[in-house]
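Lecture 7 notes: from sequence to structure.

We start with a single chain of 141 residues. Read the sequence below before looking at the structure.
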Amino acid sequence: MSFTNTGFDREEGGNKWQAEIIKNRSSPMERGVDSEVMGGKEGKENICVIGSGDFGRALAGRLATAGYKVTIASRDPDRNRSLIPSGVEISGLSSAATADLVIVAVPKDFYPSIPANLLKGKVVVDVSNRATIRRDCTESQ
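Now the structure, written as tokens:
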């Protein structure tokens, strides 16, 4: 079996593809997702991002723009308060207890500071990267 990639044909579906991309960039509420499905206050799922560094703030900002209720949980909430994106709250690590979804965005070295007892029974997504890279390694890290 073989396949030849002929590229993307803008004449056949290009505008449809573009419209789908634009449609899906809007918030879940704008796309007509039922508020009962979204859960949380005011029909928004409550997401907690643990980590107020560059990646955590960027991710929280995008999620808030998409229509989610987002809180950044930080060991030191006042440290980056002025850098927090609009529409995003910031508080201590205890805010993870009230979240529907918890996203961990801290370096591995800070894992011991994560309040594991507050994460029991929660959906937790770890988007952290390694602090070091072994360039001489040929296997997955």
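Confidence is low (pLDDT under 50) at residues 34-41. Keep this in mind for problem set 3.
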